[in-house]
Specification:
Helix content: over 70%
Distance between the termini: 26 Å
Strand content: under 5%
Order of helices and strands: HHHHHHHHHHHHHH
Structural class: mainly alpha
Length: 251
């Protein structure tokens, strides 16, 4: 592995870690970089998935203040992410890559619409005296499981999908939902990484470089991301989501 390759993968890891902590879709940075250096698509996806797990853990630690009081919720929804991530990892090795790629842009569009209209949706529910936590008690876990499946399979924009679900389904501010999102993403990606470690060959050198960069990037994202007002964070989600759609449609 050349010095240029190490530097490029590490830089991609830093950017991916920061973006994943703030929004999601960091995979759209690291995955193409690995492909550019000659890694096969599945091998690149596996190395990327394994490498970004430490970044998710780092991001969750960085947002620990916003996680206060969410332990039971994180454990409950974490089980859904764990089961979904495991299912998605298995699907990656048995289904053709085109299966999910066709519906991914649609999923992201739905997530962006939910994100943009989130304040209005909450006001509408509140005006009709619909309690978010109780009404979404069954729906949110199901949707978290579904995003976990997608995360274990590929992962790009998993964070955006989760933020849309948590933002509308939970009665709390967007920064607290973002903190919870980091835990759930790390859970889904973590169980997928464990499965990959035993089921397929992992390019550990590339995964380690991505991991080191992602850890540093996640801390940067957490440090500055919590300072963003809800409107700015929502705007960032939309920009990254649109970039993800453009990338997926053009690739």
């Amino acid at each position: 592995m050349s010095f240029l390759e190490v530097l490029a993968i590490a830089a991609a890891g830093v950017l991916a870690g920061a973006i994943n902590t703030l929004v999601g879709s960091g995979t759209l940075i690291t995955f193409p970089v690995l492909l550019a250096f000659g890694y096969a698509p599945v091998a690149a996806n596996v190395a990327n998935s394994v490498g970004l797990v430490p970044g998710a853990v780092s991001g969750a630690i960085g947002y620990r203040r916003e996680l206060a009081g969410q332990t039971r919720r994180a454990l409950r929804l974490g089980v859904c992410s764990l089961l979904g991530g495991a299912a998605g990892a298995v699907l990656l090795l048995v289904l053709p890559g085109s299966t999910f790629k066709a519906v991914v842009p649609v999923c992201i569009v739905i997530a962006l619409v939910m994100t943009v209209t989130q304040p209005r949706l909450k006001r509408w529910l509140s005006s009709r005296e619909i309690e978010l936590e109780s009404s979404a008690a069954m729906l949110v876990p199901v949707l978290v499981f579904a995003t976990g499946v997608y995360g274990g399979y590929f992962g790009a924009a998993q964070g955006i999908l989760l933020l849309a679900v948590l933002g509308v389904g939970l009665a709390q501010d967007l920064q607290r939902s973002n903190a919870l999102k980091n835990v759930l993403v790390g859970t889904a990606d973590g169980v997928a990484a464990i499965y990959f470690a035993f089921a397929v060959h992992v390019h550990w050198a590339a995964a380690l470089i991505v991991a080191l960069g992602a850890i540093a990037g996640a801390q940067l994202g957490a440090r500055y991301g919590r300072r963003l007002p809800p409107q700015a964070l929502r705007g960032l989600i939309v920009v990254v989501g649109l970039a993800a759609i453009a990338h997926l449609l053009s690739s």
